[in-house]
């Protein structure tokens, strides 16, 4: 029975199948023939084995183009109601210093078409200073006075009533390093424009923000405190060395914060006159050379550390002029731009005459018209470290006595304590807080 069936199957014509690489015999048993669409031709097989098959199958993606912040399209330029000129740095650039040229064309660091204020190469003024007519009077002084008055009124409205001593101590304790990590670092560029936006971002999460100041701006800490309060509209409620606590105010609303357009790059510094002249005014060339040689051999007054705290440098230089006409400050390790900026601040604050920056040294001369009575008055205006320390101890004792007397006198008939308000203004508090300044000897 099996033999005829086998012979009959052997004589049947077998269907021709494409070459297969599998070991299954289901196709032979059931006589399945795949359709032509599933059967690859010899041409496709030869082309499919090539190395460039994957590249031909893949469609090339268009190159990635990030959304450019410079391409504004049809969007209008942003407008800011902040009543002051926009500068890159508010502490290290002075509107009184007039440059003699610019290093680049007047490219706005806010980007083309992003701000409705023109860039003069130094700042973006809030007042249009261009004269429409030759016979017209300059409108800038009156407009600037109006802006200052508007800024003062807005700041007083946002600050509201002064803080009580209890509220002040609570905020200061809340902003300490062991309580929060939120901090603004103020470095060699000083208070920059974009830093204002960072301060307002911190004010969304808390009433106070900690500002740590190091480097060149700390030579003139009064200027740093003044610019911080003026440009942010806040109030410095605590100062210890280079550590500041900036309070936002009672009526500050985060959703009504001012519009602060950001600078996209750092503008090039303008060209200023030379700091070190060939001959010092009032001296000959030979006397100038001898003074520079003598200054390099003078004893070092102090050595400045990199990114240190330099608030005690001005009184030290004034005290040094009482003993010698030349003062040398060691600046090894500091960038060249840093000790040049320090020299400019010493020239304006001491005051003194810059002699040389050779060999990473600042050499200053007190000048021929040096008057010790003037130095004594300036020394009284800027007390020394020992005077500051003794004043801080006295203030602490006075505050403790006042707090104890207020706690006793503030109790009413039911034994409840009444809240007392503090009438201390911002100027009075700046004087008190400056007495708590404990500089580091570096």
Q: CA-to-CA gap between the ends?
A: 113 Å
Please give the CATH class of the domain at 74-129 and 138-270.
Alpha Beta
N-to-C SSE series?
Answer: HHHHHHEHEHEEHEHEHEEHHH
Largest sheet: 4 strands, mixed
How much of the sequence lies in strands comes to 5-15%
Q: How many strand segments? A: 8
Task: Name the CATH superfamily assignment of the domain at 74-129 and 138-270.
Answer: YhbY-like
CATH topology call of the domain at 74-129 and 138-270: Translation Initiation Factor IF3
Keywords:
442 residues; Translation Initiation Factor IF3; 4-stranded mixed sheet; 14 helices; 8 strands
Write the layout of secondary structure elements.
Layout: H1 2-11, H2 26-30, H3 42-48, H4 53-57, H5 140-159, H6 165-174, E1 183-186, H7 193-203, E2 208-213, H8 221-232, E3 235-240, E4 243-247, H9 285-296, E5 300-303, H10 313-321, E6 326-330, H11 336-349, E7 353-356, E8 361-365, H12 372-381, H13 385-409, H14 426-435
Parallel strand pairs: 1-2, 5-6
Antiparallel strand pairs: 2-4, 3-4, 6-8, 7-8
């Amino acid at each position: 029975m099996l033999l005829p069936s086998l012979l009959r199957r052997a004589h049947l014509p077998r269907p021709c199948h494409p070459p297969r690489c599998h070991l299954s015999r289901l196709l032979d048993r059931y006589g399945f023939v795949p359709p032509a669409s599933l059967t690859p031709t010899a041409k496709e097989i030869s082309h499919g084995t090539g190395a460039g098959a994957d590249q031909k199958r893949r469609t090339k993606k268009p190159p990635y183009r990030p959304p450019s912040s410079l391409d504004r399209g049809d969007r209008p330029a942003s407008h800011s109601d902040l009543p002051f000129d926009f500068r890159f740095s508010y502490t290290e650039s002075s509107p009184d210093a007039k440059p003699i040229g610019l290093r680049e064309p007047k490219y706005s660091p806010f980007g083309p078409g992003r701000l409705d204020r023109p860039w003069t190469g130094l700042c973006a003024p809030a007042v249009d200073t261009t004269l429409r007519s030759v016979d017209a009077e300059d409108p800038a002084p009156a407009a600037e006075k109006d802006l200052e008055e508007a800024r003062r009124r807005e700041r007083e409205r946002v600050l509201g009533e002064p803080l009580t001593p209890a509220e002040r101590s609570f905020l200061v304790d809340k902003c300490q390093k062991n309580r929060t990590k939120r901090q603004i670092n103020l470095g060699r560029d000083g208070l920059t424009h974009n830093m204002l936006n960072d301060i307002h971002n911190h004010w969304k999460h808390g009433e106070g923000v900690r500002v740590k100041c190091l480097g060149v701006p700390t030579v003139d800490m009064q200027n740093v405190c003044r610019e911080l309060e003026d440009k942010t509209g806040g109030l410095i409620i605590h100062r210890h060395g280079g550590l500041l606590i900036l309070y936002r105010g009672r009526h500050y609303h985060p959703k009504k914060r001012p519009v602060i357009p950001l600078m996209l790059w750092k503008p090039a510094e303008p060209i200023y006159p030379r700091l070190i002249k060939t001959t010092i005014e009032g001296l000959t060339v030979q006397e100038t050379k001898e003074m520079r040689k003598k200054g390099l051999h003078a004893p070092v007054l102090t050595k400045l550390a990199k990114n240190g705290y330099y608030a005690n440098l001005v009184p030290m230089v004034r005290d040094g002029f009482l003993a010698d006409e030349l003062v040398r400050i060691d600046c090894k390790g500091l960038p060249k731009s840093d000790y040049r900026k320090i020299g400019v601040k010493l020239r304006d604050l001491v005051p003194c005459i810059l002699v040389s920056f050779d060999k990473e040294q600042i050499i200053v001369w007190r000048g021929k018209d040096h008057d010790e009575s003037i130095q004594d008055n300036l020394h009284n205006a800027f007390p020394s470290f020992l005077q500051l320390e003794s004043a801080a101890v006295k203030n602490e004792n006075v505050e403790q006595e006042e707090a104890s007397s207020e706690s006793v006198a503030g109790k009413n008939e039911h034994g409840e304590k009444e809240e007392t308000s503090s009438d201390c203004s911002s100027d009075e508090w700046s004087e008190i807080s400056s007495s708590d300044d404990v500089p580091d000897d570096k």
